[in-house]
Design goal:
The complex is a heterodimer of chains A (418) and B (253).
Chain A (H helix, E strand, L loop, with lengths): L1 H5 L6 H6 L1 H9 L1 H43 L6 H16 L2 H16 L5 H9 L4 H34 L1 H17 L5 E4 L4 H11 L4 E5 L14 E5 L4 H7 L7 E4 L4 H14 L4 E5 L6 H7 L3 E3 L1 H14 L1 H12 L6 E6 L11 H4 L1 H5 L3 E5 L5 E3 L12 E6 L1 H19 L1
Parallel strand pairs in A: 1-2, 1-4, 2-3, 4-5, 5-6
Antiparallel strand pairs in A: 7-10, 8-9, 8-10
Chain B lengths: L9 E5 L3 H12 L3 E6 L2 H8 L5 E5 L5 H6 L7 E4 L4 H14 L4 E6 L2 H10 L3 E4 H14 L1 H11 L6 E7 L11 H4 L1 H5 L3 E5 L5 E3 L12 E7 H12 L1 H17 L1
Parallel strand pairs in B: 1-2, 1-4, 2-3, 4-5, 5-6
Antiparallel strand pairs in B: 7-10, 8-9, 8-10
Classes of the chains: A alpha/beta (418), B alpha/beta (253).
Chain lengths: 418, 253
């Protein structure tokens, strides 16, 4: 249940907040406390000022009624007096409960923000109140300001911390990241993003495969930061949750290249349990651990010693070949590699000759060798070579050409139907 | 190419750690005579167990006295697989002073170390991270290519695989395009790349690619294919047409 909640299956923000778990989390946060405190201070303030406002408006009303009566008692009122009568009547009509509430709110606001306009306060308190009310007013404001000021400081500090602090931005970023990851399919997950890991990731990205990188660093390694198709998750929660976030159920492959074998073993096991179909390639620092890793579900595991040693010995055995290969990999202008394409069972091109497909004419790719199922190699297959199931076509091509090749080999089905 | 003749089958491996042991094992498998140098007698014992043709020297290989003992003067190649870059650079430098002809292969942990090793005179450096990273990614996205390359590089009998055919001085085919030569049509071989004079490569050359002297044609195939291509490149018929071309050029000028 936890996993599903985390992996972003629940779509809208609203449904997430409404969920009890999200709501409880919200209540426990400081921002909720600050909000409550703010509402409390405002309501206490408004209630307090309301007492004085009602008293004042009572006084004002009395005075206005007196003036009105005096004016109405006059025998022959002048024009200016008549207009004054109308004005006072209007004022009497206007003095309602809403007006009083608004005034109280206004007074609360200018008091707790320590603005306290001098003329406003004079008009509010001193012009009407007698000595006793004035004293009461002073005491009330003193106590209220002392307490409310503290509370408002707390509220302000928390609001600022919430808005400016990284939490909000980071949460938004992570949510966006997880949303993007949840859209991925057939991607690769690489644990360990430095050293060999970064080479692996950039090689995957070059081929156009999206990668989710996982490492203990808070930030992704700088050489990969801006690459499109790369998503980075920091190892700040348990591996199960992290893998679910990385979309392990929809992933195609999993690579673990941490220095420590026990770590690799644990991650391999976790990944294998979460997705049985996952292709797992793993690093084993000691040769004796390869067996254990295979037991945990790693399809291929090998020691760095073999990778490095093979390349060293290749130099003395066949310098030309290895030089050619490495120049191809290092080359900055070319994006070519020796690529493979396996003829699968459902490929419509099975049983056709290379001439039928006319690969070279359509894609510009020349297949220089074909590896058969029994591991024999056919070099430079001619136009009359018939493709069989599980043949592996080898050619030098860029990632775009590889896609083109796959498309061309699968196009025949459509033509056949026509 | 002929690595199996006895004159050049002596190798020295400095450092008998995991990588060192693997290197020794591979070298012995391919018929080399190996001398292993390490500080640790345990590691040397393990190395000696790998085959009969393995000599061992115990001691610090950064000192000249030990290096002199380890048959460097007669050796064809030295493998530096010490754990840190500084020692490898130092070792390469002292070894090249003892035997300037030595082919030195070294591991390196980053690009700056690789550059320094190249400067010292190392023939080939292997970056550990890159080697490992490429192996993993190959294993993941193109497992058959990895298998194919392993087979070509580590083949015992070299009758097939990587071919590099030079267009040497005076070859009549220089100046021709691949299409006109009908290289693919006549021999069936696919030219996958051409190495130019300045060691740069042109991958998957098109039919319009014009050959020039000192180019190397690169393809995969058997020795028969090599002969076929050589025949085609040097065929006498071409010579006459080539002469015509030269004549035309002169007349054109």
């Amino acid at each position: 249940m936890t996993l599903r909640f985390r992996s972003g299956h629940s779509r809208s923000l609203f449904s997430r907040i409404v969920k009890w778990r999200g709501f409880a989390y919200f209540l426990s946060s400081k921002i909720a406390v600050a909000l409550t405190l703010f509402v409390l201070v405002m309501s206490v303030g408004v209630t307090g000022f309301m007492i004085f406002t009602t008293h004042k408006s009572g006084l004002v009303k009395n005075q206005l009624t007196d003036t009105l009566q005096n004016l109405q008692n006059l025998e022959s009122p002048t024009d200016s007096q008549l207009s004054e009568i109308a004005k006072i009547e209007m004022q009497l009509d206007e003095s309602t409960f809403t007006g009083e509430l608004l005034l109280s709110g206004y007074m609360t606001a200018i008091t707790i923000t320590t603005i306290g306009f001098d003329d406003v306060i004079r008009e509010y308190a001193y012009d009407f109140m007698d000595e006793e009310w004035r004293r009461a007013y002073n005491i009330w404001v003193t106590i209220f300001v002392l307490i409310a000021y503290m509370a408002i400081l707390y509220v302000n500090a928390n609001f600022v911390a919430y808005l400016v602090g990284t939490r909000l931005a980071e949460n938004m970023k992570r949510r966006l990241l997880l949303k993007n990851i949840s859209r991925l399919k057939d991607h690769y997950i690489v644990c360990g993003c430095t050293g060999a890991g970064s080479v692996v990731i950039s090689e995957f990205l070059r081929t156009g495969i999206p990668v989710v990188g996982i490492d203990s660093d808070l930030n992704p390694p700088c050489n990969l930061r801006k690459r499109s198709g790369f998503f980075y998750l920091s190892r700040d929660r348990s591996d199960d949750v992290l893998f679910a976030e990385a979309g392990i159920r929809k992933a195609r492959g999993f690579v673990s290249v941490f220095q420590d074998d026990s770590e690799n073993l644990y991650l391999t096991l976790t990944a294998h349990l979460m997705n049985k179909d996952l292709k797992i390639v793993c690093r084993a620092a000691g040769e004796e651990n390869e067996e254990k890793l295979a037991l945990a579900g790693a399809e291929v595991s090998f020691t760095p010693a073999i990778a490095v040693g093979k390349k060293l010995v290749a130099g003395i055995l066949n310098m030309e070949t290895i030089d050619f290969m490495e120049k191809m990999i290092d080359s900055k202008d070319h994006d070519c590699r020796i690529e493979e394409y396996t003829i699968t069972e459902d490929c419509p091109s099975t049983g056709k000759t290379l001439g039928d497909i006319s690969l070279g004419r359509k894609t510009g790719i020349t297949v220089f060798a074909i590896m058969k199922q029994d591991n024999s190699i056919v070099y430079n297959p001619g136009a009359d070579y018939m493709l069989e199931q599980a043949d592996v076509l080898l050619a030098i091509e860029s990632p775009e050409q590889l896609k083109l090749l796959a498309r061309t080999l699968h196009r025949h089905r459509r033509e056949k139907k026509l | 190419m002929s690595y199996s003749d006895n004159s050049g089958s002596l190798c020295t491996v400095c450092g008998a750690g995991e990588t060192g042991l693997f290197v020794i094992k591979e070298l012995v498998r391919h018929g080399f005579t190996v001398t292993a140098v390490d500080l640790d007698p345990e590691a040397l014992k393990r190395a000696a167990d790998l085959g009969e043709s393995i000599g061992t020297v115990q001691g610090n290989c950064l000192t000249d006295s030990i290096l002199n003992k380890s048959a460097l003067i007669d050796a064809r190649a030295l493998f530096c697989v010490l754990p840190d870059d500084r020692s490898n650079v130092f070792l390469s430098l002292s070894a090249i002073r003892i035997n300037p002809e030595l082919e030195i292969y070294s591991v390196a942990s980053d690009i700056s170390a690789e550059r320094k090793l190249k400067l010292v005179g190392t023939r080939r450096t292997v970056n550990q991270d890159t080697a490992e990273g490429f192996r993993i990614s190959n294993e993941m996205i193109r497992p058959n290519v990895a298998k194919f390359l392993d087979r070509i590089v580590f083949a015992r009998e070299k009758t097939e695989g990587y071919l590099s055919i030079e267009i040497s001085m005076g070859c009549p085919s220089a100046g021709w395009t691949l299409k006109k030569l009908q290289l693919h049509g006549k021999t069936g071989v696919v030219i996958i790349a051409v190495r130019r004079r300045d060691d740069s490569y042109v991958y998957s050359p098109s039919g319009d690619f014009r050959l020039s002297e000192d180019d190397n044609l690169i393809c995969f195939g058997t020795e028969d294919d090599r002969e076929a291509i050589k025949d085609l490149l040097w065929s006498s018929k071409r010579e006459t047409t080539d002469r015509w071309r030269k004549l035309r050029n002169i007349l054109g000028k």
